[in-house]
């Protein structure tokens, strides 16, 4: 029963945050229009939308993350067999280390392509 209450509370919180964001954005836009600002301020253009959700970049990022996690598991296994670190912490630390390195590498590749 407690799990159900936790899920309901979580989704209610997410919905509340989204609702406040949308209503606040609407009020800001209406205030700008009332002041006489040009409505073209709200058009972000296709460039912003295409950079927000580019499936090629998204799949590359997720692929690099999963590869980093795989390399982290292999490195954790090597450290576990050599008994360099405590059991359990070697896997977790290597997964986060190589997963983070893969995301940093993606950022560098993406910045270079821009």
Structural overview:
Helices cover 82% and strands 0% of the residues. It has 114 residues and is an all-alpha fold. Helix 3 (55-82) runs antiparallel to helix 4 (89-113). The protein folds into 2 domains: 1-43, no CATH class; 45-114, no CATH class.
Secondary-structure topology with pairs:
Blueprint: H1 2-34, H2 45-52, H3 55-82, H4 89-113
Helix pairs in contact: 3-4
Question: Main traits of this protein?
Answer:
114 residues; mainly alpha; 2 domains; 4 helices
The count of β-strands is 0
Low-pLDDT windows of residues: none
β-strand percent reads: under 5%
- Write down the secondary-structure element order: HHHH
CA(first)-CA(last) distance: 50 Å
Mean pLDDT: 85
Count structural domains. 2
Computed over alpha carbons, the radius of gyration is 22 Å
Number of helical stretches of at least 4 residues: 4
Q: Helicity, in percent?
A: over 70%
TL;DR of this structure?
The protein has 114 residues and is mainly alpha-helical. The protein has helices at 2-34, 45-52, 55-82, 89-113.
